[in-house]
Task: structure prediction
Amino acid sequence: MPDEKYYLGHRERLRQKFLDDKLTDSEMLELLLGFAIPRRDVKPLARALEKRFGGVYYVLAAEYDDLVSVPGIGRTTAILIKLACGLMTIGHRTKITDKPVFANQQHLEEFCRLQVAGKSTEELHVLYLNANFCLVDHEINSKGSIEESPVYAAHIMKRALKDGIRSVVLLHNHPSSTNSFSHADVEFTTELESALNLCGVQLYDHYVLAGGIFHSMRGEHLLNKSKFFKD
Result:
């Protein structure tokens, strides 16, 4: 069939462009979809995904349930997309496990973005670091609503006292807002920082991803600044 010959030839051209390092982001997503959906033109589907989630990066970071809600995306395709995201996460995690997480801020930010970008509700993540500031463990502390998530401080304290943990980094997202840190964010961070200090553990920083922008509480001089919001 002419249509079939066209898209099969088109895919071969995409493969060659990939080998020549000439693919655009959209074409790379299209090529990925083609491996899960081998007998259909997937360019319209790639465009629909980009429009729905706001770009290729956010397609990869989208949650499984959100992906399968898009017409044309089935279980196998959604799993392949999440697999690609998972492999990216492994790559960035390796770079901040073998070396201090702050040795390359871009690697750290990319790892953090992959954890919370595209999430439809707030999540609080914790990175546990050793004395050399290398990543020992990463976990999701809580998942909440579109506007807030609970904080299980006791669990963070308990985990921080194991395996030679010397520092922690907090990370959360604001899926419904472009604002950086709220009053509540600063309050609970300051309280947790004080409690961790008593145990000899440093709360090194708290990051938030809001509106695609990565904010640092340390960088914005908000650690130990909760009184500022009361005055």
